[in-house]
Specification:
Largest sheet: 8 strands, antiparallel
Helix content: 25-40%
Bound molecules: N-oxalylglycine, manganese (II) ion
Number of helices: 13
Shape: globular
Strand content: 15-25%
Protein backbone atom coordinates (compact mmCIF):
# COMPACT_ATOMS: atom_id res chain seq x y z
CA UNK A 1 0.00 0.00 0.00
CA UNK A 2 2.81 2.33 0.89
CA UNK A 3 5.40 2.64 -1.84
CA UNK A 4 3.22 1.92 -4.81
CA UNK A 5 0.27 3.81 -3.40
CA UNK A 6 2.42 6.92 -3.01
CA UNK A 7 2.16 7.64 -6.71
CA UNK A 8 -1.42 8.21 -7.63
CA UNK A 9 -1.56 10.99 -10.15
CA UNK A 10 -2.63 9.22 -13.31
CA UNK A 11 -6.10 8.22 -12.31
CA UNK A 12 -9.09 9.66 -10.54
CA UNK A 13 -11.08 6.51 -10.13
CA UNK A 14 -12.26 7.23 -6.60
CA UNK A 15 -13.47 10.27 -4.72
CA UNK A 16 -10.34 10.07 -2.54
CA UNK A 17 -8.09 10.06 -5.64
CA UNK A 18 -9.92 13.09 -7.02
CA UNK A 19 -9.13 15.00 -3.84
CA UNK A 20 -5.48 13.88 -3.98
CA UNK A 21 -5.28 15.18 -7.53
CA UNK A 22 -6.91 18.46 -6.55
CA UNK A 23 -4.17 19.24 -4.00
CA UNK A 24 -1.13 17.57 -5.54
CA UNK A 25 1.77 19.73 -6.78
CA UNK A 26 1.57 20.47 -10.48
CA UNK A 27 3.56 23.03 -12.38
CA UNK A 28 2.13 25.62 -14.73
CA UNK A 29 2.68 24.39 -18.31
CA UNK A 30 3.15 27.92 -19.56
CA UNK A 31 6.30 28.48 -17.52
CA UNK A 32 7.89 25.12 -18.41
CA UNK A 33 9.57 26.17 -21.64
CA UNK A 34 10.51 29.64 -20.55
CA UNK A 35 13.73 30.47 -18.74
CA UNK A 36 11.83 31.53 -15.66
CA UNK A 37 11.68 29.20 -12.67
CA UNK A 38 8.65 26.96 -13.07
CA UNK A 39 5.75 28.00 -10.93
CA UNK A 40 3.49 25.66 -8.95
CA UNK A 41 -0.07 25.65 -10.22
CA UNK A 42 -2.42 27.57 -7.97
CA UNK A 43 -4.68 25.43 -5.80
CA UNK A 44 -7.94 26.47 -4.19
CA UNK A 45 -7.25 26.06 -0.48
CA UNK A 46 -10.55 27.57 0.70
CA UNK A 47 -11.93 24.21 1.84
CA UNK A 48 -8.87 23.17 3.82
CA UNK A 49 -9.52 23.09 7.58
CA UNK A 50 -7.06 25.31 9.38
CA UNK A 51 -6.65 24.39 13.05
CA UNK A 52 -4.26 27.28 13.61
CA UNK A 53 -7.02 29.77 12.92
CA UNK A 54 -9.57 27.55 14.68
CA UNK A 55 -7.37 27.66 17.79
CA UNK A 56 -6.87 31.40 17.44
CA UNK A 57 -10.55 32.25 17.22
CA UNK A 58 -11.36 29.86 20.06
CA UNK A 59 -8.78 31.53 22.30
CA UNK A 60 -9.72 35.07 21.23
CA UNK A 61 -13.51 34.92 21.28
CA UNK A 62 -14.60 31.37 22.00
CA UNK A 63 -15.86 30.88 18.44
CA UNK A 64 -15.79 27.47 16.80
CA UNK A 65 -16.74 26.21 13.36
CA UNK A 66 -19.70 23.83 13.18
CA UNK A 67 -18.59 20.20 13.48
CA UNK A 68 -15.47 21.03 15.49
CA UNK A 69 -15.59 20.00 19.12
CA UNK A 70 -13.10 21.17 21.75
CA UNK A 71 -12.10 18.33 24.06
CA UNK A 72 -11.52 18.62 27.78
CA UNK A 73 -8.39 16.68 28.65
CA UNK A 74 -5.57 16.58 31.17
CA UNK A 75 -3.15 17.65 28.46
CA UNK A 76 -2.06 21.28 28.81
CA UNK A 77 -2.92 21.94 25.15
CA UNK A 78 -6.10 22.59 23.18
CA UNK A 79 -7.42 19.40 21.62
CA UNK A 80 -10.10 19.33 18.91
CA UNK A 81 -12.29 16.51 17.63
CA UNK A 82 -14.43 16.25 14.51
CA UNK A 83 -18.11 15.41 14.81
CA UNK A 84 -17.96 13.48 11.53
CA UNK A 85 -14.84 11.44 12.40
CA UNK A 86 -15.05 9.94 15.89
CA UNK A 87 -11.65 8.83 17.16
CA UNK A 88 -9.74 11.60 15.37
CA UNK A 89 -8.00 14.24 17.51
CA UNK A 90 -6.06 17.33 16.44
CA UNK A 91 -3.58 18.96 18.83
CA UNK A 92 -2.40 22.20 17.18
CA UNK A 93 1.00 23.56 18.24
CA UNK A 94 1.60 20.50 20.44
CA UNK A 95 5.39 20.83 20.25
CA UNK A 96 7.53 23.84 21.12
CA UNK A 97 10.02 25.14 18.54
CA UNK A 98 12.85 23.57 20.57
CA UNK A 99 11.09 20.21 20.59
CA UNK A 100 10.47 20.42 16.84
CA UNK A 101 14.16 21.07 16.23
CA UNK A 102 15.16 18.25 18.57
CA UNK A 103 13.01 15.72 16.68
CA UNK A 104 14.19 16.99 13.30
CA UNK A 105 17.81 16.43 14.41
CA UNK A 106 16.95 12.96 15.73
CA UNK A 107 15.06 12.07 12.55
CA UNK A 108 18.09 12.90 10.41
CA UNK A 109 20.97 11.75 12.60
CA UNK A 110 19.76 8.85 14.68
CA UNK A 111 16.49 7.39 13.45
CA UNK A 112 17.88 6.14 10.11
CA UNK A 113 20.82 4.35 11.83
CA UNK A 114 21.01 0.53 11.72
CA UNK A 115 19.49 -1.68 13.00
CA UNK A 116 16.59 0.62 12.09
CA UNK A 117 15.68 -0.03 8.49
CA UNK A 118 15.13 2.58 5.78
CA UNK A 119 13.91 2.48 2.18
CA UNK A 120 17.60 2.26 1.16
CA UNK A 121 18.15 -1.10 2.92
CA UNK A 122 16.79 -3.29 0.16
CA UNK A 123 19.34 -2.03 -2.35
CA UNK A 124 22.37 -0.87 -0.35
CA UNK A 125 22.11 -2.84 2.88
CA UNK A 126 22.43 -0.93 6.17
CA UNK A 127 23.91 2.55 5.77
CA UNK A 128 25.51 4.24 8.78
CA UNK A 129 25.77 8.02 9.26
CA UNK A 130 24.03 9.03 6.05
CA UNK A 131 23.31 12.57 7.23
CA UNK A 132 26.95 13.18 8.20
CA UNK A 133 28.15 11.65 4.94
CA UNK A 134 25.79 13.90 2.96
CA UNK A 135 27.12 16.98 4.68
CA UNK A 136 30.71 15.89 4.07
CA UNK A 137 29.93 15.39 0.37
CA UNK A 138 30.77 11.71 0.60
CA UNK A 139 29.97 9.23 -2.11
CA UNK A 140 28.68 5.70 -1.57
CA UNK A 141 30.68 3.35 -3.78
CA UNK A 142 30.10 -0.30 -4.57
CA UNK A 143 33.05 -2.15 -3.02
CA UNK A 144 33.75 -4.54 -5.87
CA UNK A 145 34.49 -1.62 -8.19
CA UNK A 146 36.70 0.32 -5.76
CA UNK A 147 40.37 0.28 -6.84
CA UNK A 148 42.53 -1.26 -4.13
CA UNK A 149 44.59 1.96 -3.91
CA UNK A 150 41.53 3.63 -2.41
CA UNK A 151 40.88 0.96 0.17
CA UNK A 152 43.58 2.24 2.52
CA UNK A 153 42.16 5.76 2.88
CA UNK A 154 38.57 4.75 3.17
CA UNK A 155 38.61 5.26 6.92
CA UNK A 156 36.60 3.37 9.49
CA UNK A 157 33.68 3.38 7.13
CA UNK A 158 30.10 2.63 7.28
CA UNK A 159 27.99 0.68 4.86
CA UNK A 160 26.74 -2.83 4.55
CA UNK A 161 27.30 -4.95 7.68
CA UNK A 162 26.30 -8.19 5.98
CA UNK A 163 28.26 -8.26 2.76
CA UNK A 164 30.33 -5.05 2.94
CA UNK A 165 29.47 -4.09 -0.60
CA UNK A 166 28.93 -0.34 -0.32
CA UNK A 167 31.21 2.15 1.42
CA UNK A 168 31.42 5.92 1.76
CA UNK A 169 34.44 7.69 0.26
CA UNK A 170 35.46 11.31 0.00
CA UNK A 171 34.21 12.76 -3.31
CA UNK A 172 37.74 13.50 -4.54
CA UNK A 173 39.14 10.07 -3.81
CA UNK A 174 36.45 8.61 -6.06
CA UNK A 175 36.52 11.03 -8.97
CA UNK A 176 40.32 11.28 -9.14
CA UNK A 177 40.64 7.52 -9.50
CA UNK A 178 39.16 7.74 -12.98
CA UNK A 179 37.73 4.32 -12.41
CA UNK A 180 34.19 3.73 -13.58
CA UNK A 181 32.40 2.34 -10.55
CA UNK A 182 28.88 2.23 -9.29
CA UNK A 183 28.46 5.16 -6.97
CA UNK A 184 25.86 7.53 -5.61
CA UNK A 185 26.36 10.69 -3.62
CA UNK A 186 25.23 10.67 0.01
CA UNK A 187 23.38 13.94 -0.69
CA UNK A 188 21.25 12.18 -3.31
CA UNK A 189 20.59 9.29 -0.93
CA UNK A 190 19.53 11.73 1.77
CA UNK A 191 17.10 13.38 -0.64
CA UNK A 192 15.75 9.95 -1.52
CA UNK A 193 15.38 8.87 2.09
CA UNK A 194 11.62 8.27 2.36
CA UNK A 195 11.19 6.29 5.56
CA UNK A 196 12.89 4.74 8.52
CA UNK A 197 11.39 2.45 11.15
CA UNK A 198 11.98 2.54 14.92
CA UNK A 199 11.29 -0.14 17.48
CA UNK A 200 9.62 -3.23 16.01
CA UNK A 201 10.55 -3.21 12.36
CA UNK A 202 7.87 -3.07 9.71
CA UNK A 203 8.54 -5.22 6.68
CA UNK A 204 7.07 -3.37 3.72
CA UNK A 205 7.32 -6.36 1.37
CA UNK A 206 5.12 -8.44 3.67
CA UNK A 207 3.22 -5.40 4.91
CA UNK A 208 3.58 -6.62 8.46
CA UNK A 209 5.78 -6.31 11.54
CA UNK A 210 8.67 -8.76 11.53
CA UNK A 211 9.50 -9.33 15.20
CA UNK A 212 12.53 -11.43 14.20
CA UNK A 213 14.33 -8.43 12.69
CA UNK A 214 16.94 -6.92 15.04
CA UNK A 215 15.76 -3.66 16.57
CA UNK A 216 16.33 -1.15 19.33
CA UNK A 217 13.59 0.07 21.64
CA UNK A 218 11.99 3.40 20.70
CA UNK A 219 14.03 6.15 22.43
CA UNK A 220 12.73 6.85 25.93
CA UNK A 221 12.09 10.56 25.29
CA UNK A 222 9.97 9.76 22.23
CA UNK A 223 8.02 7.14 24.22
CA UNK A 224 7.33 9.62 26.98
CA UNK A 225 6.18 12.28 24.52
CA UNK A 226 3.90 9.82 22.70
CA UNK A 227 2.37 8.54 25.96
CA UNK A 228 1.64 12.09 27.09
CA UNK A 229 0.15 13.16 23.75
CA UNK A 230 -1.90 9.94 23.36
CA UNK A 231 -3.78 10.62 26.58
CA UNK A 232 -6.84 12.34 25.02
CA UNK A 233 -7.50 9.21 22.94
CA UNK A 234 -6.98 6.66 25.73
CA UNK A 235 -9.60 5.07 27.95
CA UNK A 236 -9.51 6.04 31.61
CA UNK A 237 -6.76 4.18 33.44
CA UNK A 238 -5.06 2.84 30.29
CA UNK A 239 -1.65 3.89 29.06
CA UNK A 240 -0.40 3.93 25.49
CA UNK A 241 2.55 1.55 24.91
CA UNK A 242 4.71 2.76 21.99
CA UNK A 243 6.27 -0.26 20.28
CA UNK A 244 7.01 0.91 16.76
CA UNK A 245 7.32 4.14 14.83
CA UNK A 246 7.51 5.00 11.17
CA UNK A 247 9.35 8.14 10.17
CA UNK A 248 8.33 9.55 6.79
CA UNK A 249 10.53 12.03 4.94
CA UNK A 250 8.90 14.21 2.28
CA UNK A 251 10.77 16.33 -0.25
CA UNK A 252 9.40 18.61 -2.98
CA UNK A 253 6.57 16.85 -4.83
CA UNK A 254 6.51 13.81 -2.52
CA UNK A 255 3.12 12.46 -1.47
CA UNK A 256 1.75 9.69 0.69
CA UNK A 257 -1.11 7.96 -1.08
CA UNK A 258 -4.42 7.15 0.60
CA UNK A 259 -4.13 4.13 2.89
CA UNK A 260 -5.18 2.48 6.15
CA UNK A 261 -2.76 1.43 8.88
CA UNK A 262 -4.28 -1.90 9.71
CA UNK A 263 -1.39 -4.11 10.82
CA UNK A 264 -1.65 -3.31 14.52
CA UNK A 265 -3.68 -5.68 16.72
CA UNK A 266 -5.76 -3.23 18.72
CA UNK A 267 -7.36 -0.41 16.75
CA UNK A 268 -8.78 1.17 19.87
CA UNK A 269 -5.22 2.37 20.57
CA UNK A 270 -4.23 5.60 18.81
CA UNK A 271 -1.55 6.25 16.25
CA UNK A 272 0.30 9.35 17.45
CA UNK A 273 1.43 11.30 14.43
CA UNK A 274 3.65 14.38 14.63
CA UNK A 275 4.48 16.84 11.88
CA UNK A 276 7.84 18.59 11.49
CA UNK A 277 9.07 21.03 8.88
CA UNK A 278 7.13 22.27 5.88
CA UNK A 279 3.34 22.54 6.06
CA UNK A 280 1.32 19.78 4.43
CA UNK A 281 -2.23 18.96 3.44
CA UNK A 282 -3.65 15.88 5.15
CA UNK A 283 -6.70 14.14 3.71
CA UNK A 284 -8.90 12.31 6.16
CA UNK A 285 -11.42 10.20 4.29
CA UNK A 286 -14.05 7.79 5.49
CA UNK A 287 -14.20 4.00 5.57
CA UNK A 288 -14.56 3.85 1.78
CA UNK A 289 -12.43 5.53 -0.87
CA UNK A 290 -15.74 6.85 -2.22
CA UNK A 291 -16.34 8.93 0.93
CA UNK A 292 -15.32 12.55 0.35
CA UNK A 293 -12.22 13.29 2.46
CA UNK A 294 -11.76 16.30 4.71
CA UNK A 295 -8.64 18.31 3.91
CA UNK A 296 -6.68 19.99 6.68
CA UNK A 297 -3.32 21.70 7.09
CA UNK A 298 -0.62 19.99 9.15
CA UNK A 299 2.03 22.41 10.38
CA UNK A 300 5.32 21.83 12.11
CA UNK A 301 4.56 20.99 15.73
CA UNK A 302 0.99 19.73 15.18
CA UNK A 303 0.04 16.27 16.43
CA UNK A 304 -2.90 14.16 15.31
CA UNK A 305 -4.25 11.04 16.96
CA UNK A 306 -6.19 8.36 15.11
CA UNK A 307 -7.98 5.84 17.30
CA UNK A 308 -11.09 3.68 17.22
CA UNK A 309 -13.31 4.38 14.22
CA UNK A 310 -10.81 6.86 12.79
CA UNK A 311 -8.37 3.94 12.40
CA UNK A 312 -10.70 2.67 9.68
CA UNK A 313 -10.58 5.94 7.74
CA UNK A 314 -8.46 6.26 4.60
CA UNK A 315 -5.91 9.04 4.89
CA UNK A 316 -2.89 10.44 3.09
CA UNK A 317 -0.73 13.46 2.34
CA UNK A 318 -1.14 14.76 -1.22
CA UNK A 319 0.94 17.91 -0.81
CA UNK A 320 3.71 19.60 1.09
CA UNK A 321 4.45 23.31 0.68
CA UNK A 322 8.10 24.19 0.28
CA UNK A 323 7.77 27.83 -0.73
CA UNK A 324 8.63 30.43 1.89
CA UNK A 325 5.13 31.84 2.15
CA UNK A 326 3.29 28.55 2.65
CA UNK A 327 5.89 26.33 4.39
CA UNK A 328 5.40 28.26 7.67
CA UNK A 329 8.70 27.20 9.20
CA UNK A 330 10.19 30.59 10.11
CA UNK A 331 10.52 29.79 13.86
CA UNK A 332 12.50 26.59 13.20
CA UNK A 333 14.57 28.32 10.52
CA UNK A 334 15.51 30.98 13.05
CA UNK A 335 16.35 28.38 15.67
CA UNK A 336 18.56 26.40 13.28
CA UNK A 337 20.27 29.50 11.92
CA UNK A 338 21.67 30.18 15.42
CA UNK A 339 23.50 26.87 15.25
CA UNK A 340 27.01 26.37 13.91
CA UNK A 341 26.20 23.95 11.17
CA UNK A 342 23.43 24.88 8.80
CA UNK A 343 22.78 21.37 7.54
CA UNK A 344 19.42 21.03 9.30
CA UNK A 345 18.30 24.41 8.04
CA UNK A 346 19.13 23.50 4.49
CA UNK A 347 17.33 20.15 4.70
CA UNK A 348 14.16 21.31 6.40
CA UNK A 349 13.61 24.30 4.10
CA UNK A 350 12.31 21.92 1.44
CA UNK A 351 11.23 18.97 3.57
CA UNK A 352 8.62 17.63 5.90
CA UNK A 353 9.12 14.85 8.43
CA UNK A 354 6.30 12.84 9.98
CA UNK A 355 6.88 10.56 12.96
CA UNK A 356 3.98 8.24 13.68
CA UNK A 357 4.11 6.10 16.77
CA UNK A 358 2.14 2.90 17.22
CA UNK A 359 1.23 0.29 19.79
CA UNK A 360 1.51 -2.95 17.83
CA UNK A 361 0.05 -5.55 20.25
C1 LIG B 1 1.55 7.14 7.89
C2 LIG B 1 0.79 8.40 7.78
C3 LIG B 1 0.71 10.80 7.82
C4 LIG B 1 1.57 12.02 7.73
O1 LIG B 1 2.79 7.17 7.85
O2 LIG B 1 0.91 6.09 8.02
O3 LIG B 1 -0.39 8.32 7.66
O4 LIG B 1 1.15 13.03 8.28
N1 LIG B 1 1.44 9.59 7.82
O5 LIG B 1 2.64 11.98 7.10
MN1 LIG C 1 -1.15 6.31 8.02
Amino acid sequence: MYGSARVSDDSDRTVFRKAEKKYKLYYDDTSKSSKKKKQPKRVDLSEVLDFKSILKSQVENGDLLPGIIPLQSDLDRSVFCLESRPGFFFIPEALSVEEQCQWIRESLNNFPQPPNRTNHNAFYGPIHDLFIAANENKVLVEEASVPTSLESNSGPSVSNDDVHRWKFYGEHSVSSGGNPCKSVSAAVLLRKLRWSTLGLQFDWSKRNYDVSLPHNKIPVALCQLAKRMAEPAMLEGEQFQPEAAIVNYFGIGDTLGGHLDDMEADWSKPIVSMSLGCKAIFLLGGKSREDPPLAMFLRSGDIVLMAGEARECFHGVPRIFTDKEHAEITPIELQFSHEDDHCYLEYIRTSRININIRQVF
